[in-house]
Specification:
The complex is a heterodimer of chains A (107) and B (455). Chain A has 3 helices and 6 strands. By secondary structure, chain A is of the alpha+beta class. Chain A has one domain. In chain A, strand 2 and strand 3 form a beta hairpin. The N and C termini of chain A lie close together (5 Å). Chain B is of the alpha+beta class and 455 residues long. Chain B has 2 domains: 3-114 and 152-309, no CATH class; 320-432, Alpha-Beta Plaits (2-Layer Sandwich). Helix content of chain B is 28%, strand content 26%. Chain B contains 12 helices and 19 strands. Chain B has helices at 19-26, 39-51, 61-75, 88-102, 120-125, 155-162, 178-188, 195-208, 259-266, 335-352, 398-406, 411-414; strands at 3-8, 31-34, 78-81, 107-112, 146-151, 168-170, 235-240, 245-249, 276-277, 282-284, 289-294, 297-301, 304-306, 311-331, 359-365, 386-395, 419-420, 429-440, 449-454. Chain B has a 10-stranded mixed β-sheet with strand order 11-12-8-7-1-2-3-6-4-19, with helices on both faces. In chain B, strands 5, 14, 15, 16, 17 and 18 form a 6-stranded antiparallel β-sheet that branches. The longest helix of chain B is centred in the last third of the chain and has 18 residues, at 335-352. Chain B starts with a strand and ends with a strand. The relative contact order of chain B is 0.14. The chains are: A alpha+beta (107), B alpha+beta (455).
Chain lengths: 107, 455
């Protein structure tokens, strides 16, 4: 059976900035979660999710030694911290935004 | 095998000055390293230096040293900080002055050569194009608007400064990790091409450079259970000569060192994990092993490194217009709708004034000021008791920003009802663009100087 879950149920995360890109790490809580996010949290899925706030592409890396995915969401910080008009000019809260993303998993 | 203990002092300009005192008193460390410079920090320091030519370094280095130097002196702890910002000599003078006031004898080493603002034309004449590191775009007319230009120096200059016997090492734009790897190179005599040990030292620096972010601060899931954040212990590493280390914190302090806290910092802001580039070594973070080996103890080992790059990264900041902003709050009923109506009024007022901003940014604090368009809209407005509107604009001139700010207070009398807390008219803020580029090391490294002052 398929079930919708939020990533926060199986992951933790942290985000920061580099220039105009939001740099987000997503960590699986255990082996099962790692298999799920590897499969379901694709570059395309994350790009679609951040589309409303990002002007550029999304890059994705797998980091198996810490069971994590690394995303760079380009063009998400209003031009970069010192020229951004955003209150969260460093994208510190985008990790939480990713944790709120829903995926469909097989039971 | 020989080991050394090293502690972290501050993770940015403005970090608390209290935790470092616990590191010094109870951490049993030989070195305390500070990373005070984020990308944004140089922009802040440049604004300060324009108002006062003796500024340009992180000012909190003075109160910090006043509290820390007596303990450090007594315990023989050596301090390394990039508090110099864009004026390392100014910072070194200020620290020496503190030592004099306290009647302490002190040797302060100051590293310069990272600041290339006065060398831009000379470097261009030598063929440096300053092309953008990512897009390849030429610097062009931005050249005339450059406000600061600094190259990221690596750990070797820190090790060289420690070799002078200095108690305190002050640098300008060194990498976040240099202050941490430098003492290890100095202590263990690691060779310049001992890539794997250097890579371990970089991972150590990277884990420690953001202070409390590795010991339970900004702990994303499970934060409620982290004890005593008011007295968070900043990170301490016990490092072996072979480069492997255990990350921990001082006994009696709050916070927590566990796999989650360490992992979150491990990948923080590193981009491509297979290729973490520093002036000292290129690290492959997919090779690192993290293991919990005790309460508040995580062992870090196995990172592999590749030869250091032939270029150094430089960061240029340039003037890029002005930001103006205004704030106003509304209460129930229909707080969100009222705030949206107020935003419409402000936009129309800007048109009436003939102000045409390059960008208008609208945020509703309490609804979407942090996530923007990713934030879900409230399903039931009746449950939203208050909303604060913030509008920010980017313009080429300061006057337009003042016009925006002045249109907020009138809304108290002539806008939607239950408006309050306008908070005056915020001052326009100068915006800065950042330009990142690569420069051959041989054009920079011969210019590095270490000056030692004895008090």
């Amino acid at each position: 059976m398929a079930r919708r879950i939020r990533l926060i149920e199986i992951c933790h995360a942290r985000s920061g900035d580099k220039g105009d890109a939001s740099d987000i790490s997503l960590f699986a809580n255990d082996d099962a979660a790692w298999e799920i996010i590897r499969k379901h949290v694709t570059r395309e899925r994350v790009a679609e999710y951040f589309k409303p706030v990002a002007t550029g592409p999304v890059e994705r890396w797998e980091v198996p030694n810490v069971q994590a995915l690394k995303f760079l969401v380009h063009g998400a910080l209003g031009g970069g911290a010192p020229r951004s008009l955003r209150s969260d000019n460093l994208g510190k809260t985008f990790a939480a935004a990713l944790l709120r993303m829903e995926i469909t998993v097989e039971e | 095998m020989r080991t050394v203990r090293i502690g972290a002092g501050q993770g940015f300009y403005g970090d608390s000055l209290l935790p470092v005192l616990d590191v010094a008193r109870y951490g049993d460390v030989k070195y305390i390293s500070f990373d005070t410079l984020a990308e944004l920090t140089l922009a802040i320091l440049e604004k300060g230096r324009r108002k006062d030519p003796t500024a340009g370094y992180t000012r909190d280095v003075v109160p910090m040293m006043r509290n820390l130097l007596p303990i450090a002196k007594e315990k023989g702890i050596r301090l390394i900080t990039n508090a110099g910002g864009i004026n390392p000599r100014g910072a070194a003078r200020a620290v020496a002055e503190v030592a004099r006031e306290l009647g302490l004898s002190l040797k302060v080493a100051c590293v310069t050569g990272d600041d290339i603002y006065d060398r831009l034309d000379e470097l261009a004449a030598q063929g440096v194009t300053f092309a953008d590191r990512e897009t390849g775009q030429a610097l062009g007319d931005i050249r005339d608007r450059v406000l600061f230009a600094s190259v990221y120096l690596g750990a070797q200059v820190v090790a060289d400064a420690l070799a002078t016997g200095a108690d305190v090492v002050i640098t300008g734009r060194t990498t976040d990790t240099a202050q941490f790897l430098g003492p290890l190179i100095h202590e263990f005599g690691w060779a310049r091409d001992d890539w794997d040990r250097l890579a371990q030292g970089i991972v150590l620096g990277h884990l420690m450079e953001c202070s409390g972010q590795v010991t339970g601060g900004n702990y994303q899931v499970g934060w409620e259970e982290i004890p005593d954040l008011h007295r968070i212990g900043f990170p301490i590493a016990e490092v072996s000569e072979d480069g492997n280390f255990v990350l921990t914190k001082a006994p009696g302090t709050g916070g927590r060192v566990d796999l989650k806290s360490v992992k979150e910092q491990f990948l923080y802001e590193i981009h491509d994990p297979t290729t973490y580039i520093t002036p000292d070594v290129i690290c492959d973070l997919t090779t690192t092993r993290l293991e919990q080996v005790g309460e508040n103890r995580v062992r870090v080992s196995g990172t592999t490194g590749r030869p250091a790059p032939p270029t150094l990264k430089a960061l240029l900041g340039y003037a890029d217009g002005w930001m103006g902003e205004g704030y106003i709050s509304f209460s129930w009923p229909n707080a969100y709708s009222k705030a949206k109506r107020a935003a419409e009024i402000i936009r129309k007022r800007l048109e009436m004034h003939g102000v045409q901003p390059e960008e208008i940014h609208e945020e509703y604090i309490g609804i979407n000021s942090l996530w923007g368009a990713l934030a879900p809209e409230p399903v039931d407005e009746d449950r939203v008791n208050e909303v604060r509107l913030r509008i920010a604009i980017r313009t080429r001139n300061k006057k337009d920003c003042e016009i925006l700010a002045r249109e907020f207070p009138p809304l108290l009398l002539s806008g939607p009802p239950t408006a309050s807390a306008v908070a005056g008219t915020p001052q326009p803020r100068e915006l800065m663009g950042l330009w990142s580029t690569l420069i051959p090391r041989e054009l920079i490294e011969p210019y590095v100087q270490i000056q030692v002052e004895e008090v």
